[in-house]
Amino acid sequence: MRFMAGESKQGIRAGAVVMASAAAVAATVWGVATLVEPGKAATQQNVSRSTDPAGGAGSQPQGIPEGIAHGSEAGENAVNITIDDGPDPRWTPKVLEVLQRHDVKATFCMVGPQAKAHPGLVKKVVAAGHRLCDHTMDHDTAMDKKSVAYQERQILDAKELIEEAAGSGAKVEYYRAPGGAFTPDSRRIAAAHGMRPLGWNVDTKDFGKPGTAAVVDAVKREIGNGPTVLFHDGGGNRAQTVDALDQVLDWLKEQGRPTGFPVRTTP
Ligand SMILES: [Zn+2]
């Protein structure tokens, strides 16, 4: 989950694996908790400054619910493939190639400055029929502890950069908080700007490079948690991710599981 931005890239490399592991554990807990009780954790953390006392039961005028999406538009049996922390000039093209080979559409959760730095990749993602998701400006996994104004800038500045990079009027359709650090406010801001808050149910833990087999096994073991699977195309060497994604897509086909996009307008 840890996104290493520009100037700090070298200084924190040694600690990145440990931090990524901790984030992955937290993320899994978060995903399962959310599956059982949607929105509860975020409501407890942020109730004092929430402007939405219903804790996400609301829906914005354009019909985008504030609640975190876990379902698939492609039906109950479908799986949503989501790809985080890119785009990355080395690994995003490899991920795109695997998806194309399997004729699978995925949702790419991009970090604003990465999109700005690699607009050609954003355009490729859109041209291949995938969907865009806002993964903030700085991938601050503690943003849920910060001001609403800060959260708003993290979300809306990234949306602007991603859409500028995409061009052709392409829209960012989802918002995923880094490390699952959603708040009622951030969900409201996202929904008000046409972006459905998007969670995950299966963390493949690919970020920590546990080996291709471990990444594949995580999907097989945890797909019963829910339909949305988390992979990464950013944050370092993603060779295991590319291989594991290829195997997972073979396995899903064998299992008769279609793939699709996360729900946007249904609760
Ligand atoms: Zn991330």
Structure write-up:
Helix content is 42%, strand content 12%. It is an alpha/beta fold and 267 residues long. Strands 1, 2, 3, 4, 5, 6, 7 and 8 form an 8-stranded parallel beta sheet that branches. It is globular, with a radius of gyration of 17 Å. Mean pLDDT is 84; it is low at 1-57. Zinc ion (ZN) binds next to strand 1.
Topology:
Blueprint lengths: L12 H24 L3 H7 L32 E8 L5 H10 L5 E4 L1 H6 L1 H9 L3 E4 L13 H19 L5 E4 L8 H9 L3 E2 L4 E2 L8 H11 L5 E5 L6 H16 L4 E2 L7
Parallel strand pairs: 1-2, 1-7, 1-8, 2-3, 3-4, 4-5, 6-7
Helix pairs in contact: 3-9, 5-6, 6-7, 8-9
Bound molecules: zinc ion.
Q: β content, as a range?
A: 5-15%
- Characterize the quaternary organization of these chains: single chain
Give a quick account of the main beta sheet: strands, pairing sense, barrel closure: 8 strands, parallel
Average of the residue pLDDT scores: 84
Helix content bin: 40-55%
Structural class determined from secondary elements = alpha/beta
Q: How far is the N terminus from the C terminus?
A: 26 Å
What is the general shape? globular
H-E string: HHEHEHHEHEHEEHEHE
**What small molecules does this complex bind?**
zinc ion
Computed over alpha carbons, the radius of gyration is 17 Å
